[in-house]
Structure formats: structure tokens, C-alpha cells
């Protein structure tokens, strides 16, 4: 049996990486890649789908809204893709549906697909309304007790690499991207600085300016420029501007 499969994720690198991993499974036929919830809804309402990989957190319409709008009867067997670990993992384990955490690992994907194949064979792939509600509630609880990004998946020339968050010295806004500064290297990440700031642990990272986020462990010196702005000097020698609100956040971080 060939599974007509759709990937829904707003991150191109994440979609490409998952597509590459799925190519190793002969019974998976990727028929569409959707970059947001609206595209996913339109596709799911127009064509039959055997398997859906659905990102939990997307701008404007996340995975929750996609599920609620498509309705249980039209929902294909779904494997969620999430950056959250605690309550979300518990909800999936209890309620007979699988999940993958980013970045997706080949062995974990294989396990999820095998689990889903068994469910399809037993005709139990679809959730009951009660199960769906429990899963959504568990996911929302996971977002409320949010876990922070521990690593980033970025391109490095012709390959992709993982960078641990603690290795990042500072982050610079670059239009719709962010540049992760790691030593003398810079890596582009397709995410706005506002969204990325929300995913970072505030005990380690502080947004000191509208265009920069700094790793607190990399700050060597702090300078005040008048009553409002200032600058910070990092252990790498880099000097970053600091706004009034950024200085306030930095002061608050020192009290934690």
C-alpha cells in the first residue's frame, strides 16, 4: 500500500529535511508540501490524503486550528511535528497518535511510520472525538509550560548542521531571517527576530535591541550612553548597541 503523504510546515529547511528522510520509505509517496495552515486546509478539502505530517506551531494558523477546521471526519492519519516535549509527548503517548520533535531523527521517523502502518492495518488510525480533544488539550498545556529551543537546524554550504543554542554568541535581525553568530561564523535561520526571541530561554538570551539578541554568558562589559541607550562588548570582541528597553531587560535578567 502506498501512502499519499502531505507535509505541512512553514520552515522550508524542515520540509526539505523531512522529505529527504521520507524518500527512504518506499511506501510513502509525497504528493504535496504546504507552507501554512491555509494551504493545508485547501489541499485536504480537495484531495484524498493517507498521511499528514502537521507542524504544531505556524504563523496565523497553527496545527491546532487546521485540525479543528478540517473536522474529524476529514482528518487523515496524522503525525504531529512539534518543538515541545513535556505535556505534548505525554498526550501523544497516551492517546494512540504519534509525534516527531524537531529536528526529526531518521530512526524516530521510522518508528512513527511503523506504528502508523499497524494502526492503519487494524483500521484504528483515526481518533475519536474524545481522543482528539484530549490530544489538543495536552498540546496546549505543553505550549503553556513552554520548553525553549535547545538547538537550531541551519544550512552550512551544501550541508545542514545542528547548532546548540548555548554555542550562539548573539543573534542579528536580517529582514525575514536571523543570523546566528557563532564565533567567527554566521548562519542564516528563516525566522523573524521577534518569533525567535519568544522561543529562546530568557535566562540565557536577552533582546537588547530591536535588531539583536545576546547570549548573557558572552557579555564581557556593559557601557551606558546617557540615560537611555548603551552598548555591550562580548567575549568575542563584538560590540552591540543596546536600547533603553534592552538595558532594562538586561538589568532585570541580572536580578533573576
TrEMBL record:
The modification 4-aspartylphosphate is found at residue 55. Residues 4-117 form the Response regulatory domain. Signal peptide: none annotated. SUPFAM superfamilies: CheY-like. InterPro entries: CheY-like_superfamily, LytR-like, LytTR_DNA-bd_dom, Sig_transdc_resp-reg_receiver. SMART domains: LytTR (SM00850), REC (SM00448). Keywords: DNA-binding, Phosphoprotein. Pfam families: LytTR (PF04397), Response_reg (PF00072). Residues 152-256 form the HTH LytTR-type domain. GO terms for molecular function: DNA binding; phosphorelay response regulator activity. The keyword DNA-binding applies. PANTHER family: STAGE 0 SPORULATION PROTEIN A HOMOLOG, TRANSCRIPTIONAL REGULATOR-RELATED. This is DNA-binding response regulator.
Amino acid at each position: 500500500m502506498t501512502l499519499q503523504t502531505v507535509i505541512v510546515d512553514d520552515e522550508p529547511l524542515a520540509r526539505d529535511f523531512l522529505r529527504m528522510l521520507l524518500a527512504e520509505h518506499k511506501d510513502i509517496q509525497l504528493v504535496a508540501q504546504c507552507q501554512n495552515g491555509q494551504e493545508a486546509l485547501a489541499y485536504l478539502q480537495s484531495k484524498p490524503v493517507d498521511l499528514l505530517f502537521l507542524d504544531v506551531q505556524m504563523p496565523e494558523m497553527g496545527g491546532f486550528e487546521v485540525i479543528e477546521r478540517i473536522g474529524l471526519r476529514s482528518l487523515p492519519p496524522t503525525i504531529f511535528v512539534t518543538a515541545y516535549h513535556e505535556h505534548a509527548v505525554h498526550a501523544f503517548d497516551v492517546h494512540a497518535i504519534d509525534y516527531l520533535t524537531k529536528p526529526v531523527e531518521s530512526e524516530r521517523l521510522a518508528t512513527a511510520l511503523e506504528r502508523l502502518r499497524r494502526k492503519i492495518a487494524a483500521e484504528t488510525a483515526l481518533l475519536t472525538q474524545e481522543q482528539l480533544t484530549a490530544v489538543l488539550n495536552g498540546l496546549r498545556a505543553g505550549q503553556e509550560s513552554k520548553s525553549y529551543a535547545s538547538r537550531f537546524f541551519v544550512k552550512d554550504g551544501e550541508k545542514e548542521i545542528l547548532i546548540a543554542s548555548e554555542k550562539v554568541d548573539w543573534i542579528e535581525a536580517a529582514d525575514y531571517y536571523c543570523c546566528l553568530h557563532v564565533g567567527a561564523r554566521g548562519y542564516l535561520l528563516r525566522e523573524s527576530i521577534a518569533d525567535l526571541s519568544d522561543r529562546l530561554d530568557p535566562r540565557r538570551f536577552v533582546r537588547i535591541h530591536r535588531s539583536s539578541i545576546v547570549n548573557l554568558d558572552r557579555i564581557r562589559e556593559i557601557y551606558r550612553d546617557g540615560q537611555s541607550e548603551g552598548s555591550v562588548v562580548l567575549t568575542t570582541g563584538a560590540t552591540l548597541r543596546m536600547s533603553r528597553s534592552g538595558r532594562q531587560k538586561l538589568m532585570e535578567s541580572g536580578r533573576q
